[in-house]
Amino acid sequence: MAHAPEPAGQTHAADAVASVVGLKVHFESRAGRVHAVDGVNFDIRDGETLGLVGETGCGKTVTARSFLRLVPMPPGIHAGGSLYFHPHQRCSHCLGAGCAVCEGTGRLPVTCSACGGEGCRACGETGVKTIDLSTLPEKELRDIRGNRIAMIFQDPAKALNPAMTVRNQIAEVFYQHRTQEVLERARLGTRPNPLLRRHAAQRSRLIERALLALPPLRMQRKRVERVIDDMVASALAETQIPNPSKVMERYPHELSGGMKQRVMIAQALACNPDLLIADEPTTALDVTVQARIIELIKELQSRHKSAVLYISHDLSLVRRICNRVAVMYAGRIVEIGLTEEIFANPLHPYTRGLLAAIPGRSHDRGQLVAIKGTVLELIDPPPSCRFVERCSYAVAVCAEVDPELEDTHDGHGVACFIHNPPDMAVELPSFSKLTS
Amino acid sequence: MTATLDPPSAFGADIRGEVAISVRDLYKHFPIREGALQRVAGNIRAVDGVSFDIRRGETVGLVGESGCGKTTLGRCVSGLIDPTRGGVYFDLAARDQERLDSILAVPEPDRTEEMQRQLEQLDSDHRVDRLGKQKWLRYRRNCQVVFQDAFASLNPRHHVREIVGRPLKVHKEAFSAQLTERVVELLERVGMGRQHLYRYPHQFSGGQQQRLSIARALALDPELIVLDEPTSALDVSVQAQILNLLNELQQELHLTYLFITHDLSVIRHMADRVVVMYLGKVSEAGSTGDIFDDARHPYTHALLRASPDVDDDPGTAMVTLEGSVPDPALPPQGCRFHTRCPVATPACGWEVDDVVRWLEDEPGMFDALTDVTRRNAFTADLIFSDESSAAALATALGSEKMPLAARQALVDMKLEPTRVHIAFQPVSPVELTVRGPGHVAACVLDRMPELD
Amino acid sequence: MAVEPAVREPAVAFAGGLGIRLRRFGEISREVLRNPTTLIGLILIVGMIGMAVFAPLLIEPNTPNPNQMPRDWGALNEPPGTPGHVLGTTQQGGDVLYGVIWGARTSLRLSLIVVSLTVVIGLIVGSLAGFLGGRLDELLMRLVDVFLSIPELIFALAIAAVLGPSFGNIILALAAVFWVKYARIIRGQVIHIKQNEYVDAARVIGDSGFRIYMKDVLPNSITPVIVQATLDMGNVVLIGATLSFIGLAEAGLAEWGVLVSQGQAGISAGRWWASTFPGLMVFLWALAFNLVGDGLRDILDPRTESRR
Hints:
The structure holds 3 protein chains of 3 kinds.
Chain A: E1 16-29, E2 32-45, E3 49-53, H1 60-67, E4 76-85, E5 88-90, E6 107-109, E7 131-132, H2 138-144, E8 149-152, H3 156-159, H4 166-177, H5 179-185, H6 194-200, H7 206-211, H8 215-238, H9 244-248, H10 257-269, E9 275-279, H11 287-304, E10 307-312, H12 315-321, E11 324-329, E12 332-338, H13 339-344, H14 349-357, E13 406-409, E14 412-414
Parallel strand pairs in A: 3-10, 3-11, 8-9, 9-10
Antiparallel strand pairs in A: 1-2, 1-4, 4-7, 5-6, 11-12, 12-14, 13-14
Chain B: E1 19-34, E2 39-55, E3 59-63, H1 70-78, E4 85-90, H2 94-105, H3 113-126, H4 133-142, E5 143-146, H5 160-170, H6 176-189, H7 206-218, E6 224-228, H8 236-253, E7 256-261, H9 264-270, E8 273-278, E9 281-287, H10 288-293, H11 298-306, H12 352-361, H13 365-368, E10 369-374, E11 379-384, H14 387-398, H15 404-409, E12 410-416, E13 419-424, E14 433-436, E15 439-441
Parallel strand pairs in B: 3-7, 3-8, 5-6, 6-7
Antiparallel strand pairs in B: 1-2, 1-4, 8-9, 9-15, 10-11, 11-13, 12-13, 14-15
Helix pairs in contact in B: 5-6, 5-7, 6-7, 7-8
Chain C: H1 9-34, H2 36-53, H3 55-58, H4 96-132, H5 134-148, H6 152-163, H7 167-194, H8 197-205, H9 209-246, H10 256-264, H11 273-299, H12 302-305
Helix pairs in contact in C: 2-4, 2-11, 4-5, 4-7, 4-9, 4-11, 5-7, 6-7, 7-9, 8-9, 9-10, 9-11, 10-11
């Protein structure tokens, strides 16, 4: 192998909505520096559902939260790499409603301002607008959060504000990101009263709020409120919540787990984001409710054609919803590829171990293949393959060199010497040679 | 109605067939207190009439979603809480079992004095919440629990030797040096070692903490272990280790397990027989093969289709359930699942509450509803504040907005200007009926019709 | 499996357990050293307790009753720096330094007795209420509510006034007021801890209620009590000084509050030392215990403890 291997899953293609390149996030702890995420590369393509799968401590949640800079820093440290994002804009032809031009999504890609679409360094040769989420100033990042990138969390009870009604929580998104549209729909003309504009952007000071209670402005404010009511109701209706106007007035604790999750999904999709990050959204729900939510996410995704990054520890679940899957272990991606490909032909010993550990039909009792050992401490990890202690096929070279994630064929990438032998004259591992 | 289930038990042919635990007509209600005087306003009927047996050496899987009562039932079996009615009987010989069942089959007012006396005797010897001190301690030696949150079940201030050795100390089985050796034995049995003796719970991983919990449960050489979601909080690969360990231990020590979980793939792997619960009652029970290959209850079907199983064809559409779960304080008279059942029939027990629930979801109409005067669960008058709402309801009751089965069960409907009188066909509670050897289900249908 | 000789086992077990406990003590000590304000507080406390304990060695005790201020009729109102009276003397010829040192002894006695009494009473009442619950809980908590509705200072004042001015009565008054705090704290903790699964686990093993309380509930509930007790060591002296300042203690007592009160009259005449030094001691004592108490709260936080 003379050429430098192409990092797998890393196409930086024009149809990628986000690209993670060499992301490293570390944590300072008393015991040392924990390499929670240690060099992660993958693309999320527009319209696809990418599953990020792994067990506790593999770094998947930290990776997901890095998109919106939700990882507390300190103790977190951005130790390297970038998160590139290609934001879309609202389709001007249909104003987000969906038309032939935008293929029904309501969103269009934005050309790179530096090169006008030719391709340059600033946009990574893609020609579309590219921003680096890891270095974006906070103010601009706030414009992206909830608007172009949205996130839903594991426990809806904790993610929703218990002191706000459902309406007010979802309304926040509209106030923040759809200010202009709200004002227009309230027929306040092209030059609305600045007080109202600030109200619609939730920036009113106390005295302004008092002024807005006075008759002439009051009516206009009520118009704004009604517009918001309609927008919230239609966001809720999209998630098939029965009787949205009633649910709007409720507080989160009055709703069931499944309903709360729908509210969170409604809030996330309210502004038609380009990327939806779902961090184990169904783990806290009953199985039958989980099934409904999964179906809902699939349906909404196909309607909005947004990309979804689906974090989970449940491989079987991921199989039902994701086009591609990335398996993470000890802060790295060890395998990535099409879902069916991974399940039919898992390449990495860890992936194989994970699949074998699931109590499916084909195991006799007591014969689950358990991966021996435990996840290693990620403090100053050794330069070897991180799975070497637990791998049944490890040979000498695995304990000395760390394999990179490389493409094997058709976008199926794996970080293992069994499939991508190192450029050295050493004994190579293979699936036919069990070493332990 | 007792859901007596036949074995096959896979282990220990010599102890096969003996009943370790008999659950008979178990009810557990939690009062809802309201107001300044804390008056009882109602009851959450967590467990609402459950009977089954656990035979020695087998693993009975107790399955259901949150709110079905499985955890409460598990706590009743392990003796942590007392039932409201009915009982958990331990260590009944076959003859006593028969006697008990024959007495219980007779309604209470008809029982003779002799029967009462015999019942009391059986209760004080075998019923978990009525045992005297000696027998209670004996039960504690024979029935142990492994909890879901392993870390929470270990006192953070005690080290391993204290935690695992405590049962031995409490029952005065061993002290100091002997205790240490016994603890080391137990640790080694669960795959840990002497070096862990003086460590504290927070120094271990989730899987190791669960192993400690298991070691503690084994200390007194129990017969029965109640496992309440023992692997739900663990990673898949750790879960595999723990499940393998549990299997090993069961074989070596002839243990009996009551395995409570919501994860069907784990149940399939671990259980000999399965009991499916819904809203406080058993909806179906049978051998693992029966439940997974020949399910007769629509809820069981729904659970199976909703559980992603790695060997399943991912193209199989997940069946999702519409409708809402009834209030556990006011469960339906008929089948409890009819509100969400995809194949409900008119005979399932449609009642006034279904209409009220439907109204709750209709914009505007619920606000117009001022009162509901019930004659019973099936007949009532709904009073509206205006005529149009009443008329709208009357129309809706005859239209597609109501499930067909409900419309067919509606035997009477009268519209007066602001009042709608409705009457559904009354039904009695749906009982568990036998579908095969050891296989029971509580459904009016014989089997699930094929859904396209 | 190697079998260790039975004779050595108890020693090994004990040593193993001891080793753990020593290591935890070491960890806590390190935490203390890391926190500068706690360290300062600790130094102050050690200093003042040392002063109290070694009082007879530091300064000649007064006869017949060392707790009374000595009277040197020949040295009235001497300013600080006079030979033999480093900090000056009071209006009655009492050595201010004597008052400062022996006052520490008095304060230590006061806070130790009051805090011990209140913790024990509060623990018993609060534990019974929390552990047994039901009617007993309601009854006891209503009682606590009654006590809590009266401001501490006023209550202590009323009791001491009724019982008559004496140091012993101040102790009683303070104890009567302060115990409710502990009852409340421990009850809340017990109710919270009771819900933990390890308490269920202990029940399932077959352990008795009392043993479960002593082994599982109490040790895990005690932390806020320790913190509060530390803080109260300071507060008790503060309120005690206030009471004696008002005149509810015997005159002539070598106690900081009494001295502040008696030295008050001289302040307008420029004789600041009789009130200031004892007053300063009250301040330092309360400050020291508050610093340590706050630091302890952070150190004993279970989240810090359970860090791997």
